[in-house]
Design a protein that fits this description.
Blueprint lengths: L3 H7 L4 H8 L4 H8 L4 E2 H7 L5 H13 L3 E6 L5 E6 L1 H4 L2 H14 L2
Antiparallel strand pairs: 1-3, 2-3
Length: 108
């Protein structure tokens, strides 16, 4: 019987693995917007210029599946859904802020 921890340590996380999680065009803007706190779906959609509903839904599902954010559904009519960054998601913020600063310096 194989040890699960031994098998896990054999797997090396690559930059490709990271980019599969946060490399989508909209992932970093979503994380940055959610760093301000809980937001409802429509608030997120209005906050991110150029994103369409279908793409926002896709990105949110991907990020929820990867543990970057949580989705809380309230039993209201119509249903209310709020999104919040997890601790795992919050740990991405320094990297995103560094990329933003780099862009301000070299792309602007």
């Amino acid at each position: 019987m194989e040890n699960k921890n031994a098998k896990k340590s054999e797997h090396k996380c690559s930059l490709k693995d990271v980019l599969d999680i946060i490399g989508g065009k909209w992932a970093m803007p979503i994380i940055y917007i959610l760093s301000k706190g809980k937001m409802r779906f429509k608030e997120l959609e209005r906050s991110i210029e150029g994103i369409n509903t279908r793409m926002l839904v896709k990105e949110l599902k991907n990020m929820e599946a990867n543990g970057i954010l949580t989705r809380e559904i309230f039993a209201t009519v119509p249903p209310t859904v709020e999104y919040t960054l997890t601790e795992k998601g919050k740990k991405l913020l320094p990297s995103i802020e560094s990329l933003y600063k780099w862009g301000q310096e070299f792309i602007a």
